[in-house]
Amino acid sequence: MRRFVIGSARNLIHRSHQNSQFQRPLLSSSYRLLSSSPSADPSSSSSSTMAPPVALNNINPKVLECEYAVRGEIVTLAQKLQEEITAKPESHPFEEILYCNIGNPHSLGQQPITFFREVLALCDHPAILDKSETQGLFSADSIERAWHILDQIPGRATGAYSHSQGVKGLRDAIAAGIEARDGFAADPNDIFLTDGASPAVHMMMQLLIRSEKDGILCPIPQYPLYSASIALHGGSLVPYYLDEATGWGLEVSELKKQLETARSKGITVRALVVINPGNPTGQLLAEENQKAIVEFCKQEGLVLLADEVYQENVYVPEKKFHSFKKVSRSMGYGEKDISLVSFQSVSKGYHGECGKRGGYMEVTGFGADVREQIYKVASVNLCSNISGQILASLVMSPPKVGDESYESYSAERDGILSSLARRAKTLEDAFNKLEGVTCNKAEGAMYLFPRIDLPEKAIKATEAAKKAPDAYYCQRLLTATGIVFVPGSGFGQVPGTWHFRCTILPQEEKIPAVVSRLTDFHKSFMDEFRG
Amino acid sequence: MRRFVIGSARNLIHRSHQNSQFQRPLLSSSYRLLSSSPSADPSSSSSSTMAPPVALNNINPKVLECEYAVRGEIVTLAQKLQEEITAKPESHPFEEILYCNIGNPHSLGQQPITFFREVLALCDHPAILDKSETQGLFSADSIERAWHILDQIPGRATGAYSHSQGVKGLRDAIAAGIEARDGFAADPNDIFLTDGASPAVHMMMQLLIRSEKDGILCPIPQYPLYSASIALHGGSLVPYYLDEATGWGLEVSELKKQLETARSKGITVRALVVINPGNPTGQLLAEENQKAIVEFCKQEGLVLLADEVYQENVYVPEKKFHSFKKVSRSMGYGEKDISLVSFQSVSKGYHGECGKRGGYMEVTGFGADVREQIYKVASVNLCSNISGQILASLVMSPPKVGDESYESYSAERDGILSSLARRAKTLEDAFNKLEGVTCNKAEGAMYLFPRIDLPEKAIKATEAAKKAPDAYYCQRLLTATGIVFVPGSGFGQVPGTWHFRCTILPQEEKIPAVVSRLTDFHKSFMDEFRG
């Protein structure tokens, strides 16, 4: 019964587990119990009867440590204001809360891609597939695709747990999509379908982090999922700074410097996180830059964790997204040369299907024994949701020229992407017009991350308010205009600099209002604090 | 930038975080980096360039420790045989693999509940809701319910992230369903919707377990999610034995004994896991027994983690499921008296919608500050999938008498449940007819857990095969008949006793074949090893 306490990993590696285990009585083999020394914790004696069993001082400190600003304090305040407005419309100087805090396109009115939803609906209720009315309601290729997908699923059972990595046929479609994107082979057995990309990131952190002595190189600014996941798994975030002056450039010299600093402090750096296109910074890495990053990971023996969930969100014609898999393969590096994990999600792109919780990671360059461990962890949660799995396969194999839905699909896709590009430009220009604000170009992703230089008097006021200046600015903006930005401190920034993250997702017709409300607020804020 | 390394929890509690943090330069405040002593790990020096960065000897040992037998070795073998049969139908003495290893009803041919799928399809593709053809394809109340659900979702956006606990309107429906079930108040703010029940269990383990000194009381036999989750979170499983002689009875005296044993060894026991109806044991707890368990948790200051995912799977008219929430409230215990978490899933019950990954936990008796921490952890993963959320609300508020779908719904539900009861009885009788096999009544859930007394010669043979006897038996059964059982060692059993878990899920018309294949195999197995 050794499995019931953490035993020696060696035993497991040598597979002597089952063999040795059944010869031992359960409790005497639970040596963790035997070897433990008495605990000082009062709740370990029955004298704790009257105290509540769970309190902040006795929960997992890693949970306390974890932070996630995207849904933090500012959003809680926004929800409170929302309720007040619903109860009493005139209670605030604005009619609605504009959530620019999170990349959640459908919550701001973006419509789903029709073809995707047709296929999902038909897979949810296959009983209607051969009804005549269905022909009138659904496109021919959505019906065809639904049949094809159902044929990939054993027993056509969309209500069954799938293989723990996801339905094999859907992984085949995703691998084919990756090959079409990169021009290099992809193996369906490398794909792990997950409920959005976040659980995939957690799985890798769980695999790599043994203690606070294990470090993960993360960009600053970063998407706070990474800091949260590293905190929850008890590791150390090793920050590397993106260079705002060069459009949030990623310098390998900075990676080297931070890696050495961390190592000199006894940290074993296990992996490098790169977010491309950048979140919250929106920059798109150049291929040469990516090659240098791959070389760096190979030389230093780091796993490259490539967050590529915004791969479809590119707004500058002169630049193109290149996956790290494509880049490393084009350098002649294969399975044996580089350990690379690429994260993809159905929540982003032009589709923005956040609520479906679909995503995957492509895991390459790991030994079969380690892959087996990743599979085991995936199997504990059985599988990701099948609708999300189906949607992930659709995103990687959308309608093609000649399909009935191709025209409507590409019109919907291009309409969304071109509108996002216009919104990004309008907001970028608006920010750059504000006193003391500078904003880099959003080449990709869904965000702007403007920098704001606040007057000394404002800084003083924020100290009195016991708030970071950026948090203070965002709170004032919210209560004055109903617009929700996230303070830069939630993502990380060079000490003494202040930023905020703003999504480009409000519907296009609302952008002028956002701009004017923001501009008016900013002017009065600066007037208030100008020396 | 303190948030980027695990800092002092005190700072977070006192909320001085934002305030203090922006005055410090990033690296100098990363005291985890500063305070760490040099590491001996070779991969912390760039001399590791040539070694693969990730190997079994440098991954998180908690991952190595974790085991999940339900999808373990035996299933891998089954998948291999499946492929061989597909490639060469005559390659084995059976035509198909019969997966009795996992509670996955739809994978064995169980059909979904029509009403649930109608609503899901309409919520996936609301564009067809007001089309005339839709009237002909969908029941009137499914259309009405879809409209109602969409109206609960801001912007009717099923493609948007929801509140991190789940859509408020859906939590309202679930709370109403709990009230109707228990006759006691339920608060939608206590509901956390999750992607199946497993992530909810992980969240609670993550919250409660600080180190291997923290223990969780778990039944033996248990559903291996618990041992896996405790291992992944670095805690200690404190086993308590169910009494096979009394139909897998749960004795509070045994709980007390194991609690004291653990405490005497310095383990702080945080929580008690109770699975009711039992998995793998299928017993249904009597209300008096539940009261004693509640009293025990209250007296000992333990969180009661109630796995109630099989609450609809009850096959004995003389017994009834009572939730621990109802039992504790009926004892007069409220929020302040007992910390109770109830887990529910859409994967089980009569619906068995495993692939939808819907579920929730109802969290009661925790302070607001701790609840805030649970919310924070939920928010890091944004939200559970919306289809799963919708299905969870449907399961807790199915069609009512008078609704157009009520008749078909109740016919489908009762047909499945009565068939499961018949299958359980047939298999139970068959097991009890086998030489050396005794099998308790399946009062609920989806499993039988027969005990097998193996001849001495068989035990010897298994030692030679370096397998536990139960694992050896299951492997022989699989290769001879294509039937997949899970060895009892995957769930835990009294040392020296051997069991296996068999689901009652093969379609009814297949049960006779299962019985005869099993009976023939067992006879020849016993003949082979009889002294």
TrEMBL record, chains A, B:
Superkingdom of source: Eukaryota
InterPro entries, per the entry: ALAT1/2-like, Aminotransferase_I/II_large, PyrdxlP-dep_Trfase, PyrdxlP-dep_Trfase_major, PyrdxlP-dep_Trfase_small
Pathway membership: Photosynthesis; C4 acid pathway
Keywords tagged on the record: Aminotransferase, Pyridoxal phosphate, Transferase
SUPFAM superfamilies in alphabetical order: PLP-dependent transferases
Cited CDD domains: AAT_like
Domain Aminotransferase class I/classII large: from-to ranges: 156-517
Transmembrane segments: none
The protein's required cofactors: pyridoxal 5'-phosphate
Record text on subunit structure and interactions: Homodimer.
Sequence similarity: Belongs to the class-I pyridoxal-phosphate-dependent aminotransferase family. Alanine aminotransferase subfamily.
Name of the protein this chain belongs to: Aminotransferase class I/classII large domain-containing protein
Species whose genome carries this gene: Hibiscus sabdariffa (roselle)
